[in-house]
C-alpha cells in the first residue's frame, strides 16, 4: 500500500514535474538547513512544556530548563544532518543567533502561555498524534499532528500546527492554500479516523517568530495564531485537488503512474528555490 504525506501532496501542487523527479525518478532529496533544524528544536521545547503542563502542573512546566533543551536539540539535529550531507549547513555565529532567538521565543511563550493554553476546561489529547487514513487507489495518508487539544466543556477538538517563521505570516502567506490546506486535510482525516464530528473540530496555526520589527511604536508579540478558512467550501476544494493528485500520480493498485506526462509549473517563486534549477538535464524550466 502506497503512503503519502502532506509534504508530498504539497510538492505536487507546487510543480508536478518536480514531484515526478523526486518520487518516481529518485532525484533530489529534501536537505536539512538551519531553518528546519531550528524549527524541529522549537517544536520539541513547546511540546515538552505542554506535556508536563497537562500531565503534571504549570509550575513544573515553568521549571523545565527549556533553554538547555533547545541547545541540546539544536546540537543533536545539527549532528544528525551533518552526517547525512557533506556541505556545510550553517556556521557557529548563525547557530548562536538562532539559539538566542529561540530563547526569546521560549521566554515570551512562558510569559504569555495563558493566552493560548489553559488547564481550565481543556485537556491534552496528544502530541505528534498519528494519522493513518485509507484513501482510494490503495493509498494511505500518513501524518503527525503537532498538538491536539480537547475543550471538555464544549466537547470540541482543536488541532494545532506549530510553525516557525522569521517575522510571522503576512497576508500573502495566510492566503497561500498550499500552507493552510494541511490542517484542512488533518481535520477531515481526524474526524474519520477517530470517529469525531467534523463540525466539532477546530484548526489553528501557532506561529512563533524569530525576529521582531525594529523601531516600532507598538508592542510586538513573538507568537501569532492564525485560523484558516476551514468550512465546507474550503474542505471541498482541497478534496478535489487531492483526488486529482491521486488520479494523476497513482494507478488503481497504488503504484506510481510512470506513463503520465507531469507538467512543469514555471515561475520565479517555484524555480528560485528548486533543487533542480541548476540541472538543465533534469528540468529545462520550459513549460510543457
Account of the protein in words:
This protein is α/β, with parallel strands linked by helices and 288 residues long. The chain has a single domain, classed as Lambda Exonuclease, Chain A, CATH 3.90.320. 44% of the residues lie in helices and 18% in strands. The protein contains ten helices and six strands, in the order E-H-H-H-H-H-H-E-E-E-H-H-E-E-H-H. The chain has helices at 6-14, 16-23, 34-55, 58-62, 66-84, 92-112, 171-174, 177-193, 232-249, 268-272, and strands at residues 2-4, 122-135, 139-151, 156-165, 201-209, 223-226. Strands 1, 2, 3, 4, 5 and 6 form a six-stranded mixed beta sheet that branches. Strand 2 (122-135) and strand 3 form a beta hairpin. Helix 1 packs across helix 2, helix 3 runs antiparallel to helix 5 (66-84) and helix 5 (66-84) packs antiparallel against helix 6. The longest helix is centred in the N-terminal third of the chain and has 22 residues, at 34-55. It is globular and about 60 Å long. It starts with a strand and ends in a 16-residue tail after the last helix. The model has no long low-confidence stretch (mean pLDDT 93).
Amino acid at each position: 500500500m502506497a503512503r503519502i504525506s502532506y509534504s508530498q501532496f504539497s510538492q505536487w501542487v507546487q510543480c508536478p514535474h518536480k514531484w515526478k523527479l523526486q518520487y518516481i525518478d529518485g532525484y533530489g532529496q529534501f536537505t536539512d538547513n538551519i531553518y528546519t533544524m531550528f524549527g524541529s528544536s522549537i517544536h520539541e521545547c513547546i511540546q515538552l512544556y505542554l506535556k508536563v503542563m497537562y500531565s503534571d502542573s504549570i509550575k513544573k512546566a515553568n521549571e523545565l530548563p527549556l533553554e538547555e533543551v533547545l541547545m541540546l536539540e539544536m546540537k543533536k539535529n545539527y549532528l544528525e544532518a551533518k552526517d547525512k550531507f557533506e556541505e556545510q549547513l550553517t556556521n557557529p555565529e548563525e547557530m548562536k543567533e538562532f539559539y538566542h532567538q529561540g530563547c526569546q521565543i521560549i521566554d515570551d511563550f512562558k510569559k504569555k502561555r495563558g493566552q493560548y493554553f489553559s488547564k481550565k476546561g481543556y485537556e491534552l489529547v496528544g502530541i505528534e498524534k498519528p494519522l493513518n487514513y485509507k484513501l482510494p487507489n490503495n493509498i494511505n495518508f500518513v501524518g503527525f499532528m503537532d498538538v491536539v487539544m480537547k475543550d471538555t466543556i464544549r466537547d470540541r477538538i482543536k488541532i494545532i500546527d506549530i510553525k516557525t517563521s522569521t517575522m510571522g505570516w503576512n497576508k500573502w502567506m495566510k492566503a497561500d492554500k498550499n500552507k493552510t490546506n494541511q490542517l484542512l486535510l488533518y481535520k477531515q482525516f481526524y474526524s474519520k479516523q477517530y470517529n469525531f464530528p467534523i463540525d466539532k473540530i477546530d484548526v489553528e496555526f501557532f506561529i512563533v517568530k524569530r525576529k521582531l520589527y525594529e523601531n516600532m511604536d507598538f508592542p510586538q508579540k513573538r507568537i501569532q495564531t492564525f485560523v484558516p478558512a476551514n468550512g465546507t467550501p474550503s474542505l471541498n476544494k482541497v478534496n478535489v485537488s487531492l483526488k486529482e493528485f491521486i488520479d494523476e500520480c497513482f494507478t488503481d493498485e497504488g503504484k506510481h503512474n510512470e506513463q503520465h506526462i507531469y507538467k512543469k509549473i514555471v515561475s520565479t517563486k517555484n524555480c528560485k528555490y528548486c533543487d533542480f534549477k541548476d540541472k538543465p538535464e533534469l528540468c529545462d524550466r520550459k513549460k510543457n
